[in-house]
Protein 1
Amino acid sequence: GDSVTQMEGPVTLSEEAFLTINCTYTATGYPSLFWYVQYPGEGLQLLLKATKADDKGSNKGFEATYRKETTSFHLEKGSVQVSDSAVYFCALSDPAGGSYIPTFGRGTSLIVHP
Amino acid sequence: DAGVIQSPRHEVTEMGQEVTLRCKPISGHDYLFWYRQTMMRGLELLIYFNNNVPIDDSGMPEDRFSAKMPNASFSTLKIQPSEPRDSAVYFCASSLSGTGEFNSPLHFGNGTRLTVT
């Protein structure tokens, strides 16, 4: 079945540091890929998405590129802020392949210090 | 757009009591999901509905859990009787079906934090 693997957290960075959170996936079909963010006390919310190979999703300074050849969708940001402290979830869904239920990774906690 | 609305935000109850969690999805969305989140297990899918019909409830932990969706704008998750191990944050999410570039993300509510003592 489909699966998503994220790097273990927590990731601890100083403000303005470069961020990478790795995400790889396995899927039988051609999925769409998502990054969600969960701030303390809130539900998950979509951060960015990509629906086909080589697409780059971007939002709020975060970027991720859909790499079919390496089955990866790594999240990056050039300069993190304290307000980026949250839990980040990589996910996929493949409705065209008959799997509409999103598959989530375990989440990676990001802590940014001033 | 008001987003997905869940109530209550917090629920504290004693073991053995019945608990009912409520969810109002985004208008027009045809999928509704119930998730549970704990530190130990992360995010778990409990059940999901399509056009108000339960499609897969294989994630429901046991018979003490039940979910209904009587209409397109309302769903409930009930635990009876509740146990301390049910303590978690329960999320409702909704989405609109579509493929490719129309593949809709999930829209989550802010969750209900349940504590069973």
Protein 2
Amino acid sequence: GAVVSQHPSWVICKSGTSVKIECRSLDFQATTMFWYRQFPKQSLMLMATSNEGSKATYEQGVEKDKFLINHASLTLSTLTVTSAHPEDSSFYICSADRLAPYNEQFFGPGTRLTVL
Amino acid sequence: KQEVTQIPAALSVPEGENLVLNCSFTDSAIYNLQWFRQDPGKGLTSLLLIQSSQREQTSGRLNASLDKSSGRSTLYIAASQPGDSATYLCAVRNNYGQNFVFGPGTRLSVLP
């Protein structure tokens, strides 16, 4: 089946630093990728939709200047958490849309971010 | 706006029991519905994907049904095992190219 990877799988950083998370579709091209966030004991919530070659669409309440999304190629989207704070500590999961042979969305393994 | 709920929130059963997890969604005009499993601290494992035109999907001991008109899906687990212990998430997608909306999950414990 189609594979989506994320890197890093976990990261610990100091408050105020920026962290970049990569999401790659390994064996298919994805014009659309999605970024979700999961806080402990909660479900996944959509943060933003990443579109190749255009600006991301952010959900209400998600700061676009804090969570920078770049989808520069058909196989890579990046999420940069700028000036991270402890409240940004969460599990970040991406997914990618495969269009052929039929439309299906595949999820990455997630990145656990801990901000000290 | 699509909303997804899951009942029960938590379930504890002895090994060997058959069980049913429930998922409800408010907007019946869905594209597809997917059931996932999530182990503590881990990512998502896709279990079953049901397209809007389908009524059920089966994989091993798992069977998922879909009733779009009533906005419901069930995940049936036969002969449960301790290794089935995890959180089960139901997610609905309204349209081609759109994101999934996730339910809050059912936390399952299967006791040996």
